TrEMBL record:
ATP binds at L42, G43, E44, G45, H46, F47, G48, K49, V50, K69. It comes from Eleginops maclovinus (Patagonian blennie). It comes from the Eukaryota. This is Tyrosine-protein kinase. Belongs to the protein kinase superfamily. Tyr protein kinase family. JAK subfamily. The chain holds residues 836 to 1147 of 1163 of the full protein. The lineage of its organism: Eukaryota, Metazoa, Chordata, Craniata, Vertebrata.
Amino acid sequence: GIVLRELTEMIIKNPDISPSETLPDSDPSVFHKRYLKKMRCLGEGHFGKVTLYLYDPANDGTGELVAVKSLKQENGQVPEGWMKEIDILKSLYHINIVKYKGCCTELGGQVVQLIMEYLPLGSLMEYLPKRKVGMPQCLMFAQQICQGMEYLHSKRYIHRDLAARNVLVENEGLVKIGDFGLTKYIPEGEIYYRVREDGDSPVFWYALECLKENKFSFASDIWSFGVTLYEILTRCAHRQGPPDKFREMVQGPKEPMTVMVLIKLLEKQHRLPRPKDCPQELKILMEQCWVVDSAQRPSFKSLIERLEAIRQ
Ligand code: ADP
Ligand code: MG
């Protein structure tokens, strides 16, 4: 009220007083370490870990819950890829993409944490096996993922890690894409991104050309969407996931599963099986996401229409 107005008038009259000094909390995207109260671990992947915090500047328990992502290994300086992930999320605004809230910087910028909105139901991996999720809800989730992905592609980003573990659940009617750790920008006029990757890649979600030539494109996200759809339709059931299913396809149970073996399987036209209650038209749609010729795969725009028709 009064105090803030007087302060504002003071700043207008005296431009030398910077707002950041007089109003310490004027930038809502700056989170201070001392007000972050750790609640519990939410999950971790290969590179990052995500923790639930209460951000409580008033120190009376009235604060807000936020999800805080940090890098697993912190060694001195901030890796370039991590700042890219933060900048990408900061630039995305879509109902089906997790909301960026800000950053918490420590040690003069040597440690940076990403603050996001907290989605209480976790990822599809936690949500789907525990609930009775019918086909209409599965189709709705699938379509929402396509909507978030269509937006991402419209900004010329490829996700490269689309999977049930990276789709977050807000409530029974809304999912959002999270984890932009492998996301890359495809410059205008180019069609793919070539990477030299270590052994930590999510290979069972990768298109054939990603496994063989490290070529990532909009179409390789479509392949990963097909695998994500398979996960949704199996409700992320234990031992039904892509790694287990591909291992089952290998001849001898003793034969180790390698990227070479996976490539051979895919080249022989082996694909993930049809989930139990999966209608024929969905099975066809999934398999079109997995055609070898990437140019023949559907776009997210056409997938949205196809899913809409199936939902009718
Ligand atoms: P990584 O890059 O290490 O894979 P993710 O961003 O995928 O990290 O997060 C790891 C896990 O943490 C997710 O699979 C999910 O279970 C959980 N998680 C991530 N973000 C949120 C969030 N905003 N709200 C709730 N849970 C989250
Ligand atoms: Mg992840």
